[in-house]
């Protein structure tokens, strides 16, 4: 009888010891599922690799690789075309992950195609949070150097018909949460205030170079808190 009791106690002890492990294993997918997938949109003269540092940071913070979608597009094309391609990319991410919405994190000119998608292509139904990092939201005088070469640059010029239309009315439409992180010494967004969006959470990230804004860890921490 005593031997039988000892066997039961041993079995119960083993089961109890395994319980925290089983709970932690089952909790991990639930925690991962709590994150909206993020679609990263690069800017002019760039590609998906510009997000490598932040993707590593997001993974270290609990995101899975399937929830982090950095894609490349032809940055010389019209931002309207980019917006159409982004719409397809978002649908693909939602289908692949089973999520109902994504977050969009954009850099520089990437903010323009992303915002066109939100405003004109029904994107607000599929996006939870939108982040503009050093976004050329109201144009930049620097675009004059490439406006004669690329449609995208022509659209980035201050006062262009593309920007006039994009910024008419509500700059932050729908139920999306908007944030814009900008640098007060950005050499590519001139004037620096062009990055601000009416109706968004506008954050002065300090004096950070344009090309460093989307791999700066301090900016990452603020963006992570916002989309979280």
Number of helices: 7
User: Can you count the beta strands?
Assistant: 6
Which fold name is given in CATH as the topology of the largest domain? Rossmann fold
What distance lies between the first and last C-alpha atoms, to the nearest angstrom?
56 Å
Q: Are there runs of 5+ residues with pLDDT below 50, and where?
A: 1-32
Radius of gyration: 22 Å
Give a topology summary:
Layout lengths: L1 H32 L4 E4 L10 H9 L7 E4 L7 H19 L4 E6 L2 H11 L6 E7 L17 H6 L4 H6 L10 E6 L18 E4 L12 H11 L1
Parallel strand pairs: 1-2, 1-3, 3-4, 4-5, 5-6
Would you mind describing this structure in some detail?
- By secondary structure, the protein is an alpha/beta fold.
- The protein has 2 domains: 1-34; 36-227, Rossmann fold (3-Layer(aba) Sandwich), CATH 3.40.50.
- It is 41% helix and 14% strand.
- It contains 7 helices and 6 strands; from the N terminus they run H-E-H-E-H-E-H-E-H-H-E-E-H.
- It has a 6-stranded parallel sheet, sandwiched between helices.
- Helix 3 (79-97) packs across helix 4.
- The radius of gyration is 22 Å and the shape is globular.
- It starts with a helix and ends with a helix.
């Amino acid at each position: 009888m005593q031997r039988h009791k000892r066997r039961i106690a041993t079995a119960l002890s083993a089961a109890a010891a395994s319980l925290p492990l089983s709970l932690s294993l089952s909790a991990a997918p639930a925690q991962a599922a709590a994150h909206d997938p993020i679609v990263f949109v690069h800017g002019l003269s760039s590609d998906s690799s510009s997000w490598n540092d932040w993707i590593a940071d997001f993974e270290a913070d609990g995101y899975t690789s399937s929830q982090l979608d950095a894609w490349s597009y032809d940055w010389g094309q019209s931002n309207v075309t980019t917006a159409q391609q982004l719409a397809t990319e978002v649908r693909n991410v939602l289908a692949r992950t089973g999520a109902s919405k994504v977050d969009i994190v954009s850099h520089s000119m990437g903010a323009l195609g992303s915002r066109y998608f939100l405003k004109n292509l029904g994107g607000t139904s599929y996006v939870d949070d939108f982040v503009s990092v050093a976004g050329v939201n109201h144009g930049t005088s620097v675009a004059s150097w490439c406006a004669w070469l690329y449609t995208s640059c022509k659209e980035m010029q201050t006062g262009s018909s593309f920007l006039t239309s994009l910024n008419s009315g509500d700059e932050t439409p729908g139920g999306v949460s908007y944030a814009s992180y900008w640098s007060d010494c950005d050499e590519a967004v001139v004037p620096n205030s062009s990055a601000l969006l009416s109706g968004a959470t506008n954050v002065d990230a300090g004096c950070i170079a344009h090309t460093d804004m989307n791999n700066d860890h301090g900016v990452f921490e603020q963006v992570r808190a916002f989309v979280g």
